[in-house]
Amino acid sequence: MKRVVITGAGTINALGHSVSETLQSMREGLCGIDNLVFRDVDRLNIKIGGQVRGFEAETRFNRQQIALYDRVTQFTLTAAREAITQSGLEFSGELAAKSGIVIGTAGGGVSTGDDNYRLVYEEGKNRIHPFVVPRLMNNAAAAHISMAWNLKGPSFTVASACASSNHAMAQALMMIRSGMAPVMITGGSESMLCFGGIKAWEGLRVMSGDACRPFSANRNGMIQGEGAGIFVFEDMDHAKARGAEILAEVVGYAMTSDAADIVMPSRQGAARAIAGALKDAKINQNEVGYINAHGTGTVVNDKTECAAVADVFGPHADELLISSTKSMHGHLIGGTGSVELLACIMALRDGVVAPTIGYQEPDPECALDVVPNEARDVNVKVAMSNAFAFGGMNAVIVLRKI
């Protein structure tokens, strides 16, 4: 079985337009959540989110491309360019023929759908742009990455709500392990911050109108964000042979289903995913130093996750650092795990654990070290990223320092 490493990373999100900007914001415990700016926001009850500011598509893409790219595709391509550039890879010949893409997204082109429903239902238009379907389909971003970088191997999209990114990265890991592909571009993206996107989520009554405070006793809900995180996963032997810089090794994963409730998380389902990832990685519980939690800031999710962590790690749970960066960049739904994996890489490479900001009051049901409000300098050798989605779909990724 081949070993898999990360040789490139890219992102754009509410904390920054690059990996360096994002990690600096995480170190400083900055908050990218602010008042939302888009059409009809005044009609919403929830008016805040982790919106990407200062993004000008016209400076990155030509007119023909913009006609084809929903905002979520624009984010994905932006992050992919940073990741592939860092990796130093050029795809041609056999490498291009075998390398591929697997991207996670829950909503796909939500903004395109929202704009065109408005045209048809509100404004009474009988014609819409012929590129509506190519813009809104969930596999659009993966398709455009393949065309932009000549990637002709397996290319597809995973949609499993909030676990989409981690599921996608697990698929990429398995493909390289098996020898199916030497390189996979993977991660996730999401852009639901428009009137229709937020209005639909309001109906669930799980969103906060003031702040995301994971694990704090006075937490009152999640806050949405947007953006993308993209990585280059590569066969370790291939990476070493070409002298690539290695950011981290991807050593384990697990995927489970609660098979219980469409929205309520299961302690047992989450615990099985965490334990399964450790087993796959051949890692002892005591070796894990940091967990980037799913940590949405909802009452039920946070206490369920803490209970699952305690179940799996036992006494070592008290020694673990566990934080939720959603408190800073918001919940990117299908793209969230990809941005959160950056925090794991930072912990491994830089020895800096990102904080859970907004923490105000201890919760006895979340009695772990949640790194409240300020980053921590710690030597971390193994890090874990949790993702637990609606539908009871769980996916956990484990990274190791190289």
Overview of this protein structure:
Helix content is 36%, strand content 19%. It has 402 residues and is an alpha/beta fold. Strands 5-4-6-7-1-8-14-13-9-10 form a ten-stranded mixed β-sheet, with helices on both faces. Strands 2-3 form a two-stranded antiparallel ribbon. Strand 9 (290-292), helix 12 (299-313) and strand 10 form a beta-alpha-beta unit. Helix 3 runs parallel beside helix 7 (140-149) and helix 11 crosses helix 12 (299-313). It is globular. The relative contact order is 0.19.
Quick overview of this protein structure:
The protein is α/β, with parallel strands linked by helices and 402 residues long. It has 14 helices and 14 strands.
Throw out a few tags for this protein:
14 helices, ten-stranded mixed beta sheet, 19% strand, 402 residues, two-stranded antiparallel sheet, alpha/beta
Task: Quote the average pLDDT.
Answer: 98
Order of strands side by side in the largest beta sheet? Answer: 5-4-6-7-1-8-14-13-9-10
Counting DSSP H or I runs of 4 or more residues, the number of helices is 14
Structural class: alpha/beta
Total beta strand runs: 14
Strand content: 15-25%
Low-confidence spans: none
* Proportion of helical residues: 25-40%
Q: Terminal Cα separation, in Å?
A: 18 Å
- SSE order: EHEEHHHEHHHEHEHEHEHEHEHHEEEE
Instruction: Please summarize the sheet with the most strands.
Output: 10 strands, mixed
The shape, in one word, is globular
- Radius of gyration, CA atoms, in whole angstroms: 20 Å
